[in-house]
Amino acid sequence: MEVILSEYLGFCYGVKRAIKLAEEHADGKSWTLGPIIHNPQMVERLQAEGVGTVTDLTALEEGTIIIRSHGVGPQVYKEAQAKGLKIVDATCPHVKKAQMSAKELSEDGRQVVIVGEKNHPEVKSIFEWSNKQAIILETEADAENFAPRSKLGIISQTTVSGENFVKIVAHLLEKSHDIRILRTICTATEQRQKAALELAGQVDVMLVIGGRNSANTTRLAQLCEKKCRTYHIETATELSPVWLENANKVGITAGASTPDWIIGEVYKKCQRI
Ligand code: SF4
Q1: Is 107 a catalytic residue?
Q2: Ligand 1 pocket check for 189: Cβ under 6 Å
């Protein structure tokens, strides 16, 4: 049985940067605001190294607050500053660009539209920077039902698929005569999706590794399912040898928040089967 790793998989630039910043501040007095990435194993590891997790700033009176790669709204910076906390900003520069685009479009008097998932923390943070006025569209149906506006400003969640973005924008083009479109999709996501789809078309089984709460990992699994039998797992222990019976080729991909050591364990287990 041949085991093939996708050309692009695992940690992206923004996540690597966030983990590095968190590790540099592992002093027992640092906390990330929400889990640093959507990967429980990595969160546990950081906890053991001295970086805890808090859900909000209420209980913190001192120490360092680490803003994760998804970013937060302006209010959180103000609150942290008012409490005298040290801020380590690990917001991914691509997310920062989307946030600043939301701010700019809103200040330009446009109705801001974010193409993305309503409940995703990154989208929530971008929304906050739009002066909390953005409208979030997830589907083509949402865009079809969108009421016409005089001035529109369209941006995207960084992990949205390019295909979906174009489809939604096509509907919105009919809704205003004055539209600015800032395509804030991150290439890391597209690279991983493209490479995974290509590999899924060449193998019998795909293994997609990553947290179940990771939107980009779930999206990778959905794409691969279109091409071959696909299993979404968090770690090597979940991998059942039965899945690989009669498979000549097995492909492996992993979400942008999946650590290398977990990918390595799955790869080695496949080779042993
Ligand atoms: S997927 Fe892209 S936008 Fe998101 S953290 Fe990674 S590099 Fe940044």
Answers
A1: no
A2: yes
